[in-house]
Amino acid sequence: MSFIRLNGVEKEYKTKRKQTDKRQRFCIRSIDLSIKKGEFFTLLGPSGCGKTTILKLVAGLLRPDRGDICIENKEVTRVPPEQRGVSMVFQEALLFPHMTVGENISFGLKMKKINKRERTERANDFLKLVGLEGMNLAYPSQLSGGQKQRVSLARALVTKPEILLMDEPFSALDPGTREEMRRLLKKLHRELDITILFVTHDREEAFELSDRVAVLKNGKILEVGMPKDLYERTDTVDVAEFLGLRNIYYGIVYEQKFSCDAFQLQLLNYEAIDVTKGWLVIRPETLSIQKDNINTETNSQYLQGTMMDISYKGSFYNLNVQVGNENLYIIQDTGTEFTFVKGGIVWIGIDSTKLHFIKEI
Amino acid sequence: MKRRINLSYYLITFILVCFIAIPLIPLVIFSFSYGWKWPDLFPDQISLDAWAYVFDFGSKTWNSIMTSLKIAVTVTLINLFLALPAANILGRMDFKGKWLLEGLFYAPIIVPAFVSVMGIHMTFIQMGITDTLLGVILAHIIPTLPYMIRALVISYNTIGYIWEEQGKVLGASSFQCFFYIILPFILPGIIAGCSLSILVSLNQYIITFLIGGGQVMTLPLVMFPFISGGDPVIGSVLSLVFMIMAGGALLVMDVLLKKYYVRNVTLHFS
Q1: B112 lies in some domain
Q2: Per-residue model confidence as pLDDT tens digits over A192-218
């Protein structure tokens, strides 16, 4: 049963960018989504793909042109945001500068006309929950970026909403703080049993946090699924590209064999009776550089190539090997005892079970 | 280096104070004299006659001060009520013909208010509100409203819609959003607008004279005949009274507005 449901929601809108003063048109087209209770659901996509618009539609800050939105089986398409029982955290913390941290957190409770003693009590509880105990008398201008976002999170959660919407809440933070905030958010999601609809353009963030991810492009949902499924077995080449899978080759499959201009590979988990056009996706971490061309495992096959580029990343190498006229990107553990030479000939071991073929439609 | 900055700072302050204070000194001395004639360096007689005359029991002065303040405060309240929605739209929204609307709203700053009041006068005669307080209050809105709108538009310009969105998703209604979030943000603009509105209203002479027809006596109206030749000693007393009244009105308004929003709002803006 779905908790939040969007049926054929469409919305067109214009924004005026302050810097360029150019009007831009955005639209989202017939979006269908269904999110389960207690789920951590992420909308992932490049900027301008309409993910924030969807969030604002769910929050009620925008009204859809067509379609309807249901929360807990109640249609809320025309319900104003303050009556939807959802909370939202924006990219910036947006703490009210004229209020103390404590007052900021208890703002939602004050709007609900809850008495002052209970307000203070609950604000302090949530301040503790986000790890800022005793800061209730500070003013927002005295806090660091991470602390501000923590207060913003506490402020959104204090009213105990069923649904928390988050619009790239950590993208303005430095990497260390971002990591910390992700851990905190995961912890809060478990403890408070809340449904979270999260928006980000950072795929690592989406993978790390989410139960399910929807990948968006140009106002359309390309695919919805669990992070692992999306990464390893996506149905759309756009999704594969967006998820950073760089080894994508266009070719044909015939009788368990994939062939493109540069190479031929055996496919074990895809069988095509007729000649099928499509893309082969090879995850860079499933490839391995072999010392010699020794064929030991039956699942394995080998390609010969020239090492074009080596970059050392600490715990792994990013390698670029040219095979025929195509490039293969390989992630290789630095634990192995290899010294790579630029321009050298290498053998690449390929695990046939981990190849993924996307049929062209 | 720092010392030099300090020194120039004090120097400039001193010069500015001199420019403001020195012209006032003869005014004060004049008000306590019994006629100060050339070539005396100081008046030969000190007298409180002029002050006694001005504040004589039952004199017109007190009444005119009260009338002036009553008009200024009412006009400012009406302006605030009119300008808030207007500035909300003008400051944050884009629409066709916005420049035209803005031009109309700001026109009274450029076009002498006297021009429009001539026309309004005819209408007011038909409506029968010339020579009344109401008529004068309505007429005073024309020259004061543009200042109020201008000040508030600038305030609204800087805040955008994001704060209201944040308020709404935290469960605040539109009114609560305005009261708890927007108002503190635009408070500096409100103070600026109200100050200008009060001052411009207090300073009106022609409009009050025309619409009030001599029945509504504000302080400038009482003052004018004395300055223009009647009795400069009383004129100077009235000038001082006017300054005290205007300064006091601004001070009271500032204190009231800031007291309501207890904390010094501008101090904590990040």
Answers
A1: yes
A2: 889 999 999 988 899 999 999 999 888
Q: What angle do CA B75, B81, B84 make, to 5 degrees?
A: 125
Contact B84, B187 (CB under 8 A): no
What ipTM was estimated for this complex? 0.79
Contact A29, A52 (CB under 8 A): no
Distance CA B165, CA A295 (A): 62
Residues of B in contact with A140 (CB under 8 A): 268, 270
Question: Which of A13, A87, A88, A98 is the mutation pick for testing B, counting most B CBs within 10 A?
Answer: A98
In the block, residue with structure tokens 């928390």:
A164
Which is nearest to B83 in space by CA: B176, B154, B139? B154
d(Cα B184, Cα B191) in Å, to the nearest integer?
Answer: 11
Containing structural domain, residue B135: 72-269
Nearest to B152 by CA among B224, B217, B85, B63: B85
Helix (H/G/I), strand (E/B), else coil: A324: coil
Q: Which amino acid is at A28?
A: I
Q: Tally the domains of chain B.
A: 1
Residue B258: which CATH number? 1.10.3720.10
Please give the backbone phi and psi of residue A258, each rounded to the nearest 5 degrees, phi first.
-100, 130
Nearest residue in B to A105, CA atom: B170
pLDDT in tens, A214-262: 998 888 888 899 999 888 888 888 888 888 888 888 888 887 788 888 7
Sign of CA dihedral B226, B229, B234, B240: positive
User: Does B264 map to a domain?
Assistant: yes
Residue B20 resides in a domain: no
Residue B55 lies in a domain: no
At position A174, the amino acid (one-letter code) is D
Least CB–CB distance from B270: residue in A86, A97, A111 = A97
For chain B, what's the residue count? 270
What tokens were used for A71?
């929360």
Shortest distance between the Cα of A253 and any Cα of chain B, in A, equals: 51
DSSP secondary structure letter of residue B33: B
